[in-house]
Each structure stands twice: as C-alpha cells, then as structure tokens.
Amino acid sequence: MTPTPWVPFAVKKHGHMCGIMVTASHNPKNDNGIKVYWSNGVQILSPHDVNIQKSILKHAEPRPCMKDILDKLNNPKFDLMQGLFDPFDQITQEYFYILEHNKLLDKEGLNKCFKGKIVYTPMHGVGSFFIDKSMEIAGFQPVIHVPLQKDPDPNFPTVKFPNPEEGKSALNLAIIEAEKMDAIYIIANDPDADRLAVAQKMETGKWKVFTGNELGSLFGWFFFMSFTPINIQTIKKTLSTILRLRFPQKMLKTMARMEGMHFEETLTESIGYMCGTSVLDKDGITAAVRMTELIAYLHLRESGKTLLDKLKDIYDKYGYHFNINSYFFNHDSELTARIFERIRTLHNGGYPISISNGKYSIKHIRDLTTGYDSSMPNQQSTLPTSSLSQMLTFTFENGFVITLRTSGTEPKLKYYAELCGAPDEKDHKKIEALCKEMINATLEEFLEPKKNKLKPQE
Q1: Are residues 237 and 339 in the same domain?
Q2: Membrane-spanning regions, if any (predicted)?
Q3: At which of 68, 91, 114 does a domain end?
Q4: 351 neighbors 344 (Cβ within 8 angstroms)
Q5: 83 and 33, same structural domain?
Q6: How far apart are CA 226 and CA 235, in angstroms?
Q7: Which range of residues forms the domain containing residue 383?
Q8: Beta strands 118-121; 185-189: pairing state
Q9: Could you confirm whether 25 is annotated as catalytic?
Q10: 346, exposed or middle or buried, with CB in 10 Å at 0-12, 13-18, 19+?
Q11: How many domains, in total, are found in the chain?
C-alpha cells in the first residue's frame, strides 16, 4: 500500500510512460477505482481520457490470445511479481530526500523548537507511516495518532464517509482524541493521502474545520512570506508558479494583484494542495508538513498566533473572502446531464443572464464541459476541458462566483461559492448574508433540487 502521490512522483522522476493508482480515494468501502497519470506525471486530460475509455469498451471481452495469461493469473501458485521490480523503497527514499532538502524547511531553527501537540488521522488509510517519517525528517516531534484510525482498514469501521471534506462528522474521533490530549490542532489525510484537512479548537471550545479555500489562503501567505526579498523579480517569477495550484481563486488572485505577482486561475478548492513541483498533483503528505511548519512559525515567530489569527490578518489586509461549498447526492447520471443541459439553454436557448428575476446579473460564464468562456476574447477557456464531466462557473457583476460540477468519483453534484469584500468592508455578516442569498437563488433556479429530488449534504 502506498500514497497516491508516490505514483505521479515516480512517473515524473524516472520518465515512465504512465502511472496507474488503484484506489477508491475517499469513497465509501464498497467503491473502487483508479487514477491514471500520463508520461508527464499529471492526471490524464482530454483526449487521453476519452481514448482510454473507448479502448476499454472496445476490448471488454478478452482476446483469445489472452487465455493463457488469464489462466496463469487465476492460478494461486503463480507469482504475480515474476519479472517485475518493486520500486517502493527506492521511490520512498527519493521522496523523503527531496522533502528533507527543500529550502523552505527550517529544521534546526524553528521546527525542533516547536513543542505543540498535533493530532493526526489517516482515516483508516495509508498515511500514518509516511506522516511519521515526514515529521521526523522535518524535525518535528511525533504527531498524536487516533488509535482506532491509525492502521489501514478497507472497511472504514469508524467513519461512514472516509472523507475529511465532510468536516466534523469525519473528524469526530480525532476531536475526541485532541480533547483528551489537550491539543488544539488536528491534521487529517484522506485514505490515499493526497488530500489534507485541518481543524483548530477555538477559544469558545468549539472546533473550526478549515475550508479548502481558507487553507489555500494560509498556504499562499506562508509561501509568499517564506521567500527572503533579495530579488523581487525572482520572487515574482517563483510565486507565479507556486500560485498556479489547487488553491482558491479569489483570495490568491487578490493577494497576487496587491503584491505585484502573476496569477494563474486553477481548478478546485477540494483540500488538495501541490506544495512544490516534485509531485505534479495534490499531495497530502508534503502539505501536512508545510501546514505544521506554518503552525510552528506562527507560534514561535508571531507571538503565539494561531491559524485563525493569521486568517484574520489576511482578511484585514486583502479583504474578507467568504465561501460555502457543499453538494447534493444524485445517483442518476442521465438526470445530471439533463440538469446541466437545461442550465445551458435557460435563457432563450442560451446560458442564463441573471438570477432572482434580474436582481443579480451574470457577468461571465465558463463551461469546462464545452470549453466556452465568455470572459476570453476568443470565447475559449484557458483551463483544461472534458466532455466526460460537467462544470459550469458563473461570475456575477457584484463579484459573487459559483461553480456547479459533478464529482469525478462520487454520485454528487457539487457547488462552490465565494463572495469577496474590499479590505475596508468590515461588516462580514453582510457579505455572508448576501453570499447565502445568492447561493440559494442559484441552486433553486438552476438545479431545481425539490423537483429533481436531489438529496442535500447531511
């Protein structure tokens, strides 16, 4: 068993033709699936995804010449590893070597001085060994494990959905362990260790589970701050790469604009972070180390500040960015297709132009299913597109942005919404209320949840 990030890491480092990871990721126990990486170490995009699907359907029945091979594979005495090389130990050593020699690490000056307690859970997945080793390499004291979730278990006995995106319902045992051990931070990986979730105990005694956008904002600030400003042009060039990640669009876009950096918009906020270029995909192991470094930095270098304190500082400087992300369950793929096609023809046979009877006008529409983007001069999206999935983003005149998309691994119809205030707009409740109002209107008018019997997140 190995973390998913090991596969794209190996493909890129050794120039392999492709990589295949057999994993259900964070899905329920009865699910299974694969993640496929192309020769560049990146998950497949169109047209490769379509061509692979066509080839699978074309060769659904094994060829006659495959009979001997299949007979051998079905023989329990046959050595499946015959003639194959298991690169696990080599890849693991190479991964940890790069982590140890990363110039952001302050192992001696900062990490070894940090004695804060952090509870960790891999959600019954593969992460424990790799987190322990990574924290040791980085100079941190060992994390506190959630005993019932430490070891790999494909039945996921303590969580209905082994997905840290579910929030407190998935982190229940971790919260109990943190309370017992008097720890104020929890970090979690999903079962295949490519995602990272973080929670902090607030002064009220309640627990705050950070959204993907909030963690992305913290990462963005930390990476920007970590570069000594000797050569501002080098910093701008480097950060234009760092910010080209799976981070929130609005906050990092604002940060980049105000700090004079280049920004490239990216794809999702779903707690997946690429904190470097050795793995060209989300990597929950390195992200966990980087987040622990940030926690240590704030505690030791900024007078005991917490992640929530720093997030407030970021909002004070760059403006309050409020976001809500959730989903509906829908097991009917044909219904999903009809819902999205209806949206595309909602206004006189074309895309919608407003919500709430014209109260809120739509400024731009991006459709990553068809490749359409009304904000571009040529009407073509600069982001990767795929006809195999649905993804629509609506940007409104008042700055509200909402994305509707299907999940790549689960029977879910997801939505991501965000509204930003200027630095001098201190009435956060007003921003939140407007965002919620526009979310409700968009969902009711575009998705018609009651009519389509869409089940909301519990």
Answers
A1: no
A2: none
A3: 91
A4: yes
A5: yes
A6: 10
A7: 319-456
A8: parallel
A9: yes
A10: middle
A11: 3
**Domain limit, last residue, from 28, 58, 91:** 91
Annotate 89-112 with DSSP letters as a single string.
HHHHHHHHHHHHT-TT--TTTTGG
Residue type, 9: F
Same domain, 260 and 161: yes
156 with 274, same domain: the answer is yes
Gap between the Cα atoms of 329 and 421, Å rounded: 31
Assign residue 334 the CATH number of its domain: 3.30.310.50
Q: Would 291 be classed as within a structural domain? A: yes
Query: Does an H or E element contain 219, and which?
Result: helix 212-226
- Reading the block at residue 129, the tokens are 């060994």
**Rounded distance, CA 93 to CA 95, Å?**
5
Q: What is the pLDDT at residue 269? A: 63
Determine the 3-state secondary structure of 305 from DSSP. coil
Token pair, residue 148, equals 């019932």
- Specify the pTM: 0.86
At 87, which CATH number?
A: 3.40.120.10
Q: Please report whether residue 44 resides in a domain.
A: yes
> Residue 295 in contact with residue 395, Cβ under 8 Å?
no
In a shared domain, residues 332 and 221: no
Which 8-state DSSP code applies to residue 192?
T
Q: Is residue 323 located within the same domain as residue 308? A: no
- Domain assignment present for 63: yes
Widest pairwise Cα distance in the chain: 72
Q: Would you write out the chain's pLDDT as a tens digit for each of its 458 residues?
A: 899 999 999 999 999 999 999 987 877 777 888 899 999 999 998 789 889 989 989 988 878 888 888 788 788 887 777 777 889 999 999 999 999 988 777 888 899 999 999 999 999 999 999 999 999 999 999 999 999 999 999 999 999 888 888 888 899 999 999 999 999 999 999 999 999 999 999 999 999 999 888 999 999 899 888 864 544 444 444 444 443 333 345 788 888 888 887 777 765 667 889 988 899 999 999 999 999 999 999 999 999 999 999 999 999 999 999 989 899 999 999 999 999 999 999 999 999 999 999 999 999 999 999 999 999 999 999 888 888 889 999 999 999 999 999 987 789 999 999 999 999 999 999 999 999 999 999 999 999 999 999 999 87
Q: For the chain, give percent helix, strand, coil, nearest 5.
A: 40, 15, 45
Could you tell me if 312 and 224 lie in one domain? yes
Predicted pLDDT at 249:
56
Please say whether the beta carbons of 352 and 346 come within 8 A.
Answer: yes
Which residue in the list 25, 270, 278, 381 is annotated as catalytic? 25
Judge whether 99 lies within some domain.
Answer: no
Q: Do 235 and 196 share a domain, yes or no?
A: yes
Which of 252, 173, 180 minimizes the C-alpha distance to 216? 252
